[in-house]
Amino acid sequence: MFFTDPAGGSSKTGFFPKIPVLAGKIPLPALLCFLVLAALSPVLHNGFVNYDDVQYVLSNPALRGSWLDALSYSPGYYHPVVTLLYKAEFSLFGLAPLPYHITSLALHLASCVSVFYLFSLLGWRREPAFLGALLFGVHPVHVEPVAWISGRKELLWGLFSFWTLGCYFKYIDTGKNRFFILSLFCFVLAVLSKPFALMLVFAVPLADYYRKRAFSAVLLLEKVPYFIAAASLFLLSWLPSGFLLDAGSGGFNPSNPAAAGAESLLFYVWKFMLPVNLSAMYPPSALRVAPAVRVFLLFAAAPALYGAWRILRRAENAEAAKAAVFCLGFFIITIFPALLARAPADRYGYVPAAGLFFLYSFFVWRLYEVFRRKRFFSPARTLAALAAAHCVVLGAASFERAAVWRDTFSLSADVLKNDPRQAVAYFIRADAHREAGRYRDSIADYSRCLELAPGNWKALSNRARAFADLGEFDKAIADCGAAILINPRSAQLFLNRGNAFSLKGEYVAALRDYDRALAISPAFTPAAENRRTVLGKLKSSPKKAQARN
Predict the structure, then answer these.
(1) What is residue 5's predicted lDDT score, i.e. its pLDDT?
(2) Contacts by 513-520 with C-beta closer than 8 Å and gap 24+?
(3) Is the model's pLDDT at 186 over the cut of 70?
């Protein structure tokens, strides 16, 4: 029997009847954590990277302020749960990267165990639940949010999403209100970790469908608190401050959403099927699926789906059909926000992938049971071996992939290997070169970035700093001027040019730029302090300063 009671599962052995570990001597959640930890252990040797880690951790003023500052910090969209966790880590460990990576890995392991228990709550036996959770844990597409400190949003909204569904299943099974309250609480935490979790309001009814609950007014009333919470959090995005989704919405592509969404869906499905050529920075063109892939999906996947539908519509396969609807529904609902993004990202598939792994493990085990009942022992054992080999291959790929995130140089090298025209990769590598004192290498990378993205004022500003570090102040002033033409409302740009003028000895011009910076941002302390310094120099040697200006 494939299904069993949600509480404990079956004690029968299946895939591995002669391996005592899987016969119950070692708890499967413990074994699951050990295998996932083995696959992702290289992340513990990683540091910070210049790809969002600077904004979220290294230079985040909210981490150095009060807890209220952390609670109100909103870089793009509002995710206070993430920022508060960073604040706790910073308060305890400073900027040592290891504790942050341990936290991320622990969150991922907690999600893997949560997926295992969620599968068990669906009424599945231990073996398919273990297989699905293991796939979730070791799939290479999931390396990015675990190995990247700034990928914490995915880990948190994933964990709370699984708890949201798990507690709701417990509420259905027991009728105890405390599980409903816990489910609602976890839903709010998921949304406050990442707004993508708003889609869970459409995933929760899948649990009712799976448990065959009859449609009623009570069923609708149970969903009202979820929709009220979702609507309240969503409406915050319309506040002038962009409380929830301000900058985050800038990454979405509303033009021709149907076609873009279909391309995105094919992209993610293909990456889950064949996780090769992964990248931290896919260009928008990556969504244009190659014709060969489309042909494969048309002539291989379409007939397979049709055959599966013909089988599942039979009465004796009602349970399998129900599982397929639940799994695919969860995948499509949770992947939907990612389908609107201008460029894909591996991290967007972290939570939705659970639906596909639900489905995969369900049907692999179902096929195994068919072979075993008909005493086709050789095909059954072959299938078990193939499933195990699949997990080993994915784990080995994840082990290798985790090392890509070791530092900014390894990350940018991997990105540029797949797409040598990725401007952001040159930008973050240029920053890393400058931090290491390799100013010429830094300038070369900033220049390459500007060739690919001429309007990147941040690259102009940072190249100006590199020129100033080399004492080439005229070039620094020219780059700052070009950046100001693009972004004339940046106080930082006027400060940078004022600093270059000051270092060159042109104090009057420096004072003018500091005044402009303070006009834009009156509380800009660095501009005020540098202005006082320049005024002191002008007073001490006015004739010399006048001659140099």
Answers:
(1) 38
(2) 516/491, 517/491, 517/492, 518/491, 520/489, 520/490, 520/491, 520/494
(3) yes
